[in-house]
Amino acid sequence: MIKALLREGVEPDVVCGTSVGAMVGGSYVAGNLEKLEEWVLGSTRSDVLRFFDLKFSQSGFVSVERMRRFLRNYVGAEDVLIENLPKKYVAVSADLDNGREFWFRKGVLAHAVRASMAMPGLFPAVRHNDRWMVDGGLVNPVPVSACHALGAEVVIAVNLNSDILGRQFRKVSHAVTESQEGVLGSLKQHARQYSSTLFPQNQKKDEPLSLIRAISSSINIFQDRITRSRLAGDPADVVLSPKLGDMGILEFSRAADAMREGEECVQVALPEIRRAIGAFD
Protein backbone atom coordinates (compact mmCIF):
# COMPACT_ATOMS: atom_id res chain seq x y z
CA MET A 1 0.00 0.00 0.00
CA ILE A 2 2.86 2.38 0.81
CA LYS A 3 4.49 1.69 -2.55
CA ALA A 4 1.18 2.11 -4.38
CA LEU A 5 0.64 5.48 -2.70
CA LEU A 6 4.18 6.61 -3.51
CA ARG A 7 3.68 5.74 -7.18
CA GLU A 8 0.67 8.06 -7.17
CA GLY A 9 2.72 10.89 -5.66
CA VAL A 10 1.26 10.49 -2.16
CA GLU A 11 4.20 10.61 0.23
CA PRO A 12 3.49 10.62 3.97
CA ASP A 13 5.14 13.07 6.36
CA VAL A 14 4.03 11.08 9.41
CA VAL A 15 4.03 7.29 9.79
CA CYS A 16 2.40 5.56 12.78
CA GLY A 17 1.93 1.84 13.11
CA THR A 18 0.83 -0.94 15.39
CA SER A 19 2.19 -4.50 15.31
CA VAL A 20 2.99 -5.49 11.71
CA GLY A 21 2.10 -1.92 10.73
CA ALA A 22 4.88 -0.70 13.01
CA MET A 23 7.28 -3.09 11.32
CA VAL A 24 6.37 -2.17 7.74
CA GLY A 25 6.11 1.55 8.55
CA GLY A 26 9.42 1.52 10.42
CA SER A 27 11.13 -0.32 7.58
CA TYR A 28 9.84 2.27 5.12
CA VAL A 29 10.94 5.29 7.16
CA ALA A 30 14.37 3.72 7.77
CA GLY A 31 14.84 3.08 4.04
CA ASN A 32 14.64 -0.72 4.24
CA LEU A 33 11.24 -1.41 2.69
CA GLU A 34 12.64 -2.93 -0.52
CA LYS A 35 14.87 -5.22 1.51
CA LEU A 36 11.96 -6.33 3.71
CA GLU A 37 9.75 -6.92 0.67
CA GLU A 38 12.43 -9.05 -0.97
CA TRP A 39 12.68 -11.25 2.12
CA VAL A 40 8.92 -11.64 2.49
CA LEU A 41 8.37 -12.50 -1.17
CA GLY A 42 11.16 -15.09 -1.03
CA SER A 43 10.21 -16.63 2.31
CA THR A 44 8.80 -20.10 2.82
CA ARG A 45 7.09 -21.88 5.67
CA SER A 46 10.51 -23.15 6.73
CA ASP A 47 11.81 -19.59 6.97
CA VAL A 48 8.93 -18.61 9.24
CA LEU A 49 9.37 -21.70 11.41
CA ARG A 50 12.97 -20.72 12.07
CA PHE A 51 11.66 -17.91 14.29
CA PHE A 52 10.04 -20.39 16.65
CA ASP A 53 11.65 -21.89 19.72
CA LEU A 54 10.49 -25.51 19.82
CA LYS A 55 11.49 -25.75 23.47
CA PHE A 56 8.14 -24.10 24.22
CA SER A 57 9.43 -21.52 26.69
CA GLN A 58 7.01 -19.93 29.13
CA SER A 59 7.50 -16.45 27.68
CA GLY A 60 6.36 -17.20 24.12
CA PHE A 61 6.94 -19.37 21.09
CA VAL A 62 9.11 -16.95 19.11
CA SER A 63 12.87 -16.92 19.64
CA VAL A 64 13.81 -13.46 20.94
CA GLU A 65 17.30 -13.55 19.44
CA ARG A 66 16.08 -14.60 15.99
CA MET A 67 13.44 -11.88 16.05
CA ARG A 68 15.98 -9.25 17.09
CA ARG A 69 18.32 -10.32 14.29
CA PHE A 70 15.52 -10.15 11.73
CA LEU A 71 14.45 -6.65 12.80
CA ARG A 72 18.05 -5.42 12.77
CA ASN A 73 18.50 -6.72 9.23
CA TYR A 74 15.17 -5.76 7.67
CA VAL A 75 13.78 -2.85 9.72
CA GLY A 76 16.57 -0.92 11.40
CA ALA A 77 20.03 -1.62 12.79
CA GLU A 78 20.75 -1.17 16.49
CA ASP A 79 22.05 2.35 15.92
CA VAL A 80 18.90 3.53 14.10
CA LEU A 81 16.99 5.78 16.49
CA ILE A 82 13.40 6.92 16.01
CA GLU A 83 14.27 10.53 16.80
CA ASN A 84 16.84 10.53 13.96
CA LEU A 85 14.52 9.16 11.27
CA PRO A 86 13.78 11.44 8.28
CA LYS A 87 10.03 11.35 9.00
CA LYS A 88 7.97 11.53 12.16
CA TYR A 89 7.29 8.00 13.40
CA VAL A 90 5.46 6.27 16.25
CA ALA A 91 5.19 2.59 17.12
CA VAL A 92 2.22 1.81 19.37
CA SER A 93 2.50 -0.72 22.19
CA ALA A 94 0.46 -1.62 25.27
CA ASP A 95 1.71 -1.46 28.85
CA LEU A 96 0.89 -4.87 30.31
CA ASP A 97 1.03 -3.57 33.89
CA ASN A 98 -1.63 -0.88 33.59
CA GLY A 99 -3.27 -1.49 30.22
CA ARG A 100 -2.35 1.94 28.91
CA GLU A 101 -1.37 2.79 25.37
CA PHE A 102 2.33 3.60 24.95
CA TRP A 103 3.87 5.47 22.02
CA PHE A 104 7.49 4.87 21.13
CA ARG A 105 8.62 8.29 19.86
CA LYS A 106 12.33 7.89 20.55
CA GLY A 107 14.87 5.18 21.15
CA VAL A 108 16.01 2.19 19.09
CA LEU A 109 13.62 1.55 16.19
CA ALA A 110 13.99 -2.25 16.22
CA HIS A 111 13.25 -2.38 19.96
CA ALA A 112 10.09 -0.29 19.53
CA VAL A 113 8.86 -2.47 16.66
CA ARG A 114 9.45 -5.68 18.63
CA ALA A 115 7.44 -4.25 21.54
CA SER A 116 4.62 -3.22 19.21
CA MET A 117 4.48 -6.76 17.74
CA ALA A 118 4.60 -8.72 21.02
CA MET A 119 1.32 -10.59 20.59
CA PRO A 120 0.55 -12.36 23.90
CA GLY A 121 1.11 -16.10 23.81
CA LEU A 122 3.10 -15.95 20.59
CA PHE A 123 5.79 -13.28 20.96
CA PRO A 124 7.52 -12.67 24.31
CA ALA A 125 6.67 -9.40 26.08
CA VAL A 126 9.36 -6.71 25.82
CA ARG A 127 10.88 -4.95 28.83
CA HIS A 128 11.02 -1.17 28.48
CA ASN A 129 11.77 1.31 31.28
CA ASP A 130 10.91 -1.32 33.91
CA ARG A 131 7.54 -2.01 32.25
CA TRP A 132 6.38 -4.99 30.19
CA MET A 133 5.20 -4.03 26.70
CA VAL A 134 2.97 -6.13 24.43
CA ASP A 135 1.21 -5.84 21.08
CA GLY A 136 -0.31 -2.39 20.55
CA GLY A 137 -3.28 -4.01 18.84
CA LEU A 138 -4.69 -4.63 22.30
CA VAL A 139 -5.32 -0.89 22.73
CA ASN A 140 -5.06 0.89 19.35
CA PRO A 141 -4.89 -1.33 16.24
CA VAL A 142 -5.20 1.59 13.78
CA PRO A 143 -3.40 4.54 15.45
CA VAL A 144 -5.10 7.51 13.82
CA SER A 145 -4.82 9.40 17.11
CA ALA A 146 -1.02 9.13 17.02
CA CYS A 147 -0.93 10.61 13.51
CA HIS A 148 -3.07 13.56 14.60
CA ALA A 149 -0.88 14.08 17.66
CA LEU A 150 2.19 14.31 15.43
CA GLY A 151 0.56 17.00 13.32
CA ALA A 152 -0.94 15.09 10.38
CA GLU A 153 -3.63 17.07 8.56
CA VAL A 154 -4.81 14.21 6.33
CA VAL A 155 -4.70 10.67 7.69
CA ILE A 156 -4.87 7.62 5.43
CA ALA A 157 -5.47 4.62 7.68
CA VAL A 158 -4.94 0.96 6.84
CA ASN A 159 -7.35 -1.31 8.67
CA LEU A 160 -6.23 -4.93 8.49
CA ASN A 161 -9.07 -5.96 10.82
CA SER A 162 -12.02 -5.28 8.51
CA ASP A 163 -12.15 -8.89 7.32
CA ILE A 164 -10.58 -10.49 10.37
CA LEU A 165 -13.41 -12.37 12.10
CA GLY A 166 -13.72 -16.00 11.14
CA ARG A 167 -10.49 -16.04 9.17
CA GLN A 168 -9.27 -19.13 11.02
CA PHE A 169 -12.28 -21.17 9.91
CA ARG A 170 -12.61 -20.26 6.25
CA LYS A 171 -11.86 -22.86 3.66
CA VAL A 172 -8.47 -22.28 2.12
CA SER A 173 -8.50 -23.08 -1.59
CA HIS A 174 -4.79 -22.74 -2.31
CA ALA A 175 -2.46 -25.68 -1.98
CA VAL A 176 0.75 -25.53 0.00
CA THR A 177 3.62 -27.37 -1.65
CA GLU A 178 7.03 -27.12 -0.07
CA SER A 179 10.21 -29.11 0.20
CA GLN A 180 10.76 -30.91 3.49
CA GLU A 181 14.47 -30.12 3.38
CA GLY A 182 16.33 -27.94 5.85
CA VAL A 183 14.75 -27.16 9.18
CA LEU A 184 11.50 -29.04 8.54
CA GLY A 185 13.39 -32.18 7.66
CA SER A 186 15.07 -32.22 11.05
CA LEU A 187 12.02 -31.57 13.20
CA LYS A 188 10.35 -34.35 15.12
CA GLN A 189 6.76 -35.36 14.48
CA HIS A 190 5.38 -33.37 17.43
CA ALA A 191 7.10 -30.25 16.10
CA ARG A 192 5.47 -30.75 12.70
CA GLN A 193 2.10 -31.06 14.40
CA TYR A 194 2.82 -27.89 16.34
CA SER A 195 3.90 -26.00 13.22
CA SER A 196 0.70 -26.95 11.42
CA THR A 197 -1.28 -24.91 13.94
CA LEU A 198 0.54 -21.76 12.86
CA PHE A 199 -0.82 -21.84 9.32
CA PRO A 200 -4.39 -21.94 7.98
CA GLN A 201 -5.91 -25.29 7.22
CA ASN A 202 -9.42 -26.56 6.66
CA GLN A 203 -10.99 -26.54 10.13
CA LYS A 204 -13.63 -29.19 10.80
CA LYS A 205 -16.56 -27.91 12.83
CA ASP A 206 -16.24 -30.45 15.65
CA GLU A 207 -12.45 -30.48 15.76
CA PRO A 208 -10.90 -29.11 18.99
CA LEU A 209 -9.18 -25.76 18.49
CA SER A 210 -5.42 -25.59 18.82
CA LEU A 211 -3.92 -23.20 21.37
CA ILE A 212 -2.61 -20.85 18.68
CA ARG A 213 -5.95 -20.69 16.88
CA ALA A 214 -7.85 -20.10 20.10
CA ILE A 215 -5.51 -17.26 21.06
CA SER A 216 -5.44 -15.62 17.63
CA SER A 217 -9.21 -15.90 17.15
CA SER A 218 -9.85 -14.36 20.57
CA ILE A 219 -7.48 -11.50 19.76
CA ASN A 220 -9.22 -11.05 16.41
CA ILE A 221 -12.56 -10.50 18.14
CA PHE A 222 -11.50 -7.72 20.46
CA GLN A 223 -9.20 -6.12 17.85
CA ASP A 224 -12.20 -5.84 15.55
CA ARG A 225 -14.28 -4.23 18.31
CA ILE A 226 -11.49 -1.89 19.42
CA THR A 227 -10.78 -0.84 15.83
CA ARG A 228 -14.42 0.06 15.22
CA SER A 229 -14.60 2.04 18.46
CA ARG A 230 -11.33 3.93 17.96
CA LEU A 231 -12.09 4.84 14.34
CA ALA A 232 -15.55 6.07 15.35
CA GLY A 233 -14.09 8.32 18.03
CA ASP A 234 -11.11 9.56 16.00
CA PRO A 235 -11.86 8.92 12.33
CA ALA A 236 -9.29 8.94 9.55
CA ASP A 237 -9.85 10.96 6.38
CA VAL A 238 -9.55 7.79 4.31
CA VAL A 239 -9.68 4.19 5.55
CA LEU A 240 -8.17 1.48 3.34
CA SER A 241 -9.56 -1.95 4.22
CA PRO A 242 -7.94 -4.79 2.25
CA LYS A 243 -9.73 -8.13 2.34
CA LEU A 244 -7.23 -10.55 3.84
CA GLY A 245 -9.54 -12.81 5.82
CA ASP A 246 -8.39 -16.01 4.10
CA MET A 247 -4.74 -15.43 5.05
CA GLY A 248 -3.21 -16.55 8.32
CA ILE A 249 -1.21 -14.14 10.48
CA LEU A 250 2.05 -16.02 9.77
CA GLU A 251 1.35 -17.01 6.18
CA PHE A 252 4.14 -14.95 4.62
CA SER A 253 4.26 -17.34 1.66
CA ARG A 254 1.13 -15.55 0.40
CA ALA A 255 2.74 -12.12 0.60
CA ALA A 256 2.36 -11.54 -3.14
CA ASP A 257 -1.42 -12.08 -2.86
CA ALA A 258 -1.60 -9.66 0.07
CA MET A 259 0.42 -7.04 -1.82
CA ARG A 260 -1.83 -7.28 -4.87
CA GLU A 261 -4.88 -6.80 -2.66
CA GLY A 262 -3.24 -3.77 -1.08
CA GLU A 263 -2.42 -2.20 -4.44
CA GLU A 264 -5.97 -2.77 -5.71
CA CYS A 265 -7.39 -1.29 -2.51
CA VAL A 266 -5.33 1.87 -3.03
CA GLN A 267 -6.41 2.17 -6.68
CA VAL A 268 -10.09 1.93 -5.75
CA ALA A 269 -9.68 4.60 -3.05
CA LEU A 270 -7.59 7.02 -5.15
CA PRO A 271 -10.45 9.46 -5.93
CA GLU A 272 -11.28 9.67 -2.21
CA ILE A 273 -7.60 10.10 -1.31
CA ARG A 274 -7.14 12.91 -3.83
CA ARG A 275 -10.27 14.68 -2.56
CA ALA A 276 -9.02 14.48 1.03
CA ILE A 277 -5.59 15.80 0.12
CA GLY A 278 -7.03 18.47 -2.17
CA ALA A 279 -9.03 19.93 0.70
CA PHE A 280 -5.75 21.01 2.34
CA ASP A 281 -3.90 22.22 -0.79
Q: Can you offer a commentary on this structure?
A:
Helix 2 (20-29) packs antiparallel against helix 6 (109-116) and helix 5 packs across helix 6. A hairpin with a 5-residue loop joins strand 2 (88-95) and strand 3 (101-104). The protein is 41% helix and 11% strand. The strands form 2 sheets. Strands 1, 2, 3, 4 and 5 form a 5-stranded mixed beta sheet that branches. The chain starts with a helix and ends with a helix. The longest helix is centred in the last third of the chain and has 24 residues, at 255-278. The chain has 281 residues and is of the alpha/beta class.
Notable features of this structure?
281 residues; alpha/beta; five-stranded mixed β-sheet; two-stranded parallel ribbon; 7 strands; globular
SSE layout and pairing:
Layout (H helix, E strand, L loop, with lengths): L1 H6 L6 E5 L1 H10 L3 H10 L2 H5 L14 H11 L13 E8 L5 E4 L4 H8 L9 E3 L2 E5 L8 H6 L6 E3 L24 H4 L2 H8 L14 H23 L4 E3 L14 H24 L3
Parallel strand pairs: 1-2, 6-7
Antiparallel strand pairs: 2-3, 2-5, 4-5
Give me a quick take on this structure.
With about 280 residues, the chain is of the alpha/beta class.
Mean pLDDT: 81
Principal-axis shape? globular
Q: How many individual β-strands?
A: 7
Report the structural category: alpha/beta
Distance between the termini: 23 Å
Assess the beta-strand content as a share of residues.
5-15%
Biggest sheet details: 5 strands, mixed
**Helical stretch count?**
11
Question: Cα-atom Rg, whole angstroms?
Answer: 19 Å
**What's the order of the H and E elements?**
HEHHHHEEHEEHEHHHEH
Helix content: 40-55%
Low-confidence stretches: 167-201
